[in-house]
Amino acid sequence: MTEKSIYEQAKVTDKPGEECGVFGMYDFDGSDVSGSIYYGLLALQHRGQESCGIAVSDTSGPKGKVLSVKDMGLVNEAFNPENLEKLKGDIGVGHVRYSTAGSSTRENAQPLVLNYVKGTLALAHNGNLVNAPELRRDLAYTGAIFQTTIDSEVIAYYIARERLNSKSAEEAVGRAMGKIKGAYSLVIMSPRKLIGARDPYGFRPLCIGKRDNAYILTSESCALDTLGATFVRDVLPGEIVTITPEKGIISDTSMCISREEHARCVFEYIYFARPDSYIDGVSVYHSRILAGKFLAMDSPVEADIVVGVPESGNCAAMGYALQSGIPYGTAFVKNAYIGRTFIKPKQKTRESSVQVKLNALKEVVNGKRVIMIDDSIVRGTTSDRIVHMLREAGAKEVHMRVSSPPFLWPCYFGTDVPAREQLIAYNRSVDVICKIIGADSLAYLRTERLDEMVNELGICKGCFTGKYPIDPPEEDIRGEFDK
Ligand code: SF4
């Protein structure tokens, strides 16, 4: 099996693919940051397991000298004490990647490092642009030669190009933001500045932290806890923050749009983000507990025990139990050592792989009426196996509750939701899906509950409603540049 096919096999699960994680750090005291970026990336590993990288620079050294290491695989596979030791620098950016645009190859790993007339730029991107093909064509016609097939390179090119007519790197970032459309959280290292930017809709998270005299930018606040850093604040949707020793944090909000237009990816709260993260002031854990409570209110059923499908179904199961008064239990043991390189056999792979990953605890479910909570059903290829597993373990009834609405539409903003025809809920009623997965009853979270779940923050619900905050591209752009 080729390296590529191993990684692609690992993506075949019945969950929407995660996207990417970005991290940046600038230590004003001049200490090396690569070790801390490494631990930051470890904390963001759930956001992408295909490739990762760190690029650093020494702000007291020659301007434009950037050292970087990028590789396929997990953070602790790509890095070791020797290569981290060589990454000397007090400013740096890091990235963990899951490919939603561009294939899973070493060239497409980030951060991207770009040398141009004004110096060197290193960039880490989370999200997907909807106008990348047009922009890329425009750039190509004016002589740009691309090294990768990812849309992040389009952003890097535009920043480099705009820098020629801008007074500062952050001004160039702002000008580039005027051209790019879609979802992006960016962490950029210019020779003497750490810059963070979030698209005006706020699709993907980005926050600021501080430890001693060092500033941090990270996709999720859980990485700050790992480093013993304090949370400063979220980067606002549309904001550009520039971090320097002379001026601290400088904010440019000229690209911000009204709160009503904000469109954070609600799936960050439902599934992607770690439950110990806060995004825009809302606890991911709390939003999942609420989703479970809403399910209990809207779709009650008599039962003896509530269980979650690990890991992300657990919080919602707890919420369901709290609201309903039905005891919470642990019904599954998960094999924690399967990981990314799990290679499934070609035939019946999805069936057997579930059992390799999960096993039901007979002692917990035998003779019981079980409510089983999962965060989502995408293709429906694993739910039937899990329901069956509970029945084999002696469950008298299995009632499935899903802490998100049915997926009916694809995503163009950095989440790997497949085409409509592959979605089990497309053209099927809940009753039909219930029969397919073999449950006694099935209910999804009501779409109207999503706003309450995130304290009325502006959110995107496109994959549930088909109403996207930005018009989707006419062509399916995922993987566009590999064609
Ligand atoms: S379409 Fe769905 S997965 Fe994509 S950004 Fe919107 S809420 Fe998130």
UniProtKB/TrEMBL annotation:
Enzyme class: transferase
Name recorded for this polypeptide: Amidophosphoribosyltransferase
Described function: Catalyzes the formation of phosphoribosylamine from phosphoribosylpyrophosphate (PRPP) and glutamine.
Record family assignment: In the C-terminal section; belongs to the purine/pyrimidine phosphoribosyltransferase family.
Pathway where it operates: Purine metabolism; IMP biosynthesis via de novo pathway; N(1)-(5-phospho-D-ribosyl)glycinamide from 5-phospho-alpha-D-ribose 1-diphosphate: step 1/2
NCBIfam families: purF
Active-site residues, Swiss-Prot/TrEMBL: 20
Residues annotated for Mg(2+) binding in this entry: 312, 374-375
Keywords (A to Z) from UniProt: 4Fe-4S, Glutamine amidotransferase, Glycosyltransferase, Iron, Iron-sulfur, Magnesium, Metal-binding, Purine biosynthesis, Transferase
